[in-house]
Amino acid sequence: MSLAVYNVLLTALIVIAFPFAVMALILRPRYRIGLGQRLGRLPSDVIQLTQGTAPFWLHTPSVGELLATRPFLYALKARFPDTPLVVSVQTTTAYQTAMERCPEADGVFYFPLDYPLVSRRVLKRIGPQVFFFTETEIWPNMLASLARQRIPALLVSGRFSRRAQQRYGLLSPVFRPILQSITAYCMQTQEDAQRLIAAGADAQRVQVTGNFKVDGVNTAGDVGRAILAQTGLGDRPLLIGASTHDSEEAALLQAVRELRGDLPHLLLLLAPRHPERFSSVEALLQRQNWRYIKRSAYSAPAPPDTEVFLLDTLGELVSFYAAASLVFVGGSLIRGPGGHSMIEPALVGVPVCFGPYTHNFSSIVAELKKAHGGIEIYDARSLYDAALPLLTDANLRQKTGALARKTIEQQQGAVERTLDVVLQHCSTYAPSHS
Description:
By secondary structure, the chain is an alpha/beta fold. The protein has helices at about 5-25, 35-40, 45-50, 65-70, 70-80, 90-100, 115-125, 140-150, 160-170, 170-180, 190-200, 210-215, 225-230, 250-260, 280-285, 315-320, 345, 360-370, 380-390, 395-410, 415-425, and strands at about 55-60, 85-90, 105-110, 130-135, 155-160, 185, 205-210, 240-245, 265-270, 290-295, 310, 325-330, 350-355, 375.
């Protein structure tokens, strides 16, 4: 199946889906957000910004990938301060985040539909000197148009999972030529690189540069220690349940109930991932008769028999990691979320544990497990078994935390390694102004 056949099938799919799409647009106003841009009508500020300037164009689909690229965006802007930088996204939350939290982006817009006429229109309007894309965002028509116009296309902080290898393998006649046309691949791990080459990428264009997420961490110092000291809880062994999802709190509480039989002073800091769940998690604590306080309600000393500190505020979790004895990283005991970041606690030398569903951080998890700086658990019982020796043996805890920190430190530098590749393909090199 060639690219032409792919486009015939794409056209047929659009025709079939058209009435349903119209109905969805009528009934769901949020689907209309950015529709004009997705069909090739760029915002006027982006058109004005890019006119005759040969900007950099970075495409990153969602919020997680966008935030992970911030260190790269910052470094790119520092090295090329006079070159406009535009960012495209696919979700409304990513668009809002880019507008609010990415000052490095001179312009933001929704990525266009990957249809030949639309792709060519947008590409002609922007006229980038380099197109960057993240993860495994392979859009055949856009990448084919870039190749025809000899515009470098670079995959940065690239991942290529076994699932992606299988998926692209089924459509090899379309994707193999596209993969071979991409200028350079900057992959997160050697395993990603090998799978990509097996799928059809030119091995000479593939190199391992690392994961941007490792370079963009914020450890936030000792703010958390001060907050715990203020509430009178600073001298207690601390287990953090970080960014937890539904059902994970129940498993944590069950494990902590058992752990407190061995460690009566153990304190659980529970930080649900989504603010809308704060009240339901509090209700769970009440049903199970836990003695707890809420961060939003306490600045005075807490009762000495407090068992759980419910972190029902935003933006503070990372500041507590340095005070922890052990961190469980949520979104990993259940299918779907793919796990949240274990980089921040590991980087401050704290042992980390996580469930089996961690595909968002698969390479980092693999390295942490290999180095014995991270422990995979499956339920409340395995969490108890992993936590007890770490909480009761200070030497083991310090050794495990040091191994976790070393693992992350060894992976840092992805941005600089990627920038070295970028400089080989940019026509407007400028010395760093940093």
